[in-house]
Design goal:
With 155 residues, the chain is mainly α. It has helices spanning 2-5, 21-25, 37-45, 49-54, 57-60, 66-70, 77-90, 96-108, 116-124, 135-144, 147-153. The radius of gyration is 19 Å and the shape is globular.
Length: 155
């Protein structure tokens, strides 16, 4: 799957020797059985495009970059995960939670809107009301980067 390796963030795939250190050191792989960064790198190397882009594996990554610290080849599995996510979004494979956050960003200028309790805590600690967001300015930026078209492809 040269698409991943040819992106600035996906070059770590080319260094992979399938030793498995990325998976053995991954905090997510310890608790989510299906998350296996080594297996994902193998699938990319083997060119299993549809399996890579239709799966949920790249979305489990926390971007802690422990894999990079442990990789004997300096392969940046975390950056490869970003490259895969970018490709999957272009294909319209966006997990529901990510899609909801993306739509919220576009509609409200925020990924998460603060709840009543959070707003009360702001006032209690002297932070005042929630800062305003220039939603039109946010939308202008997102439209320029075609973000709105990408999220409209999602499920």
């Amino acid at each position: 799957m040269h698409e991943v390796a040819n992106t600035p963030r996906g070059r770590g795939v080319l260094a992979c020797i399938q030793c498995g250190r990325c998976t053995s050191s991954c905090p997510v792989a310890r608790v989510v059985e299906e998350h296996n960064p080594r297996k994902l790198m193998e699938m990319i190397i083997l060119g299993l495009r549809s399996d890579v882009l239709s799966g949920r594996l790249p979305w489990y990554c926390l971007s802690c970059f422990t894999c990079l610290d442990r990789c004997p080849q300096g392969g940046d599995v975390g950056e490869a995960m970003f490259a895969i996510r970018n490709l999957t979004v272009r294909e319209g494979n966006i997990p529901d939670g990510i899609l909801a956050q993306a739509k919220s960003l576009f509609e409200n200028g925020r990924v998460v809107t603060a709840g009543r309790m959070a707003l009360a805590q702001r006032v209690k600690h002297g932070l005042g009301n929630e800062p305003t967001v220039d939603v039109e300015a946010v939308q202008k930026i997102l439209k320029r980067t075609h973000f709105d078209k990408l999220i409209s492809k999602g499920k």
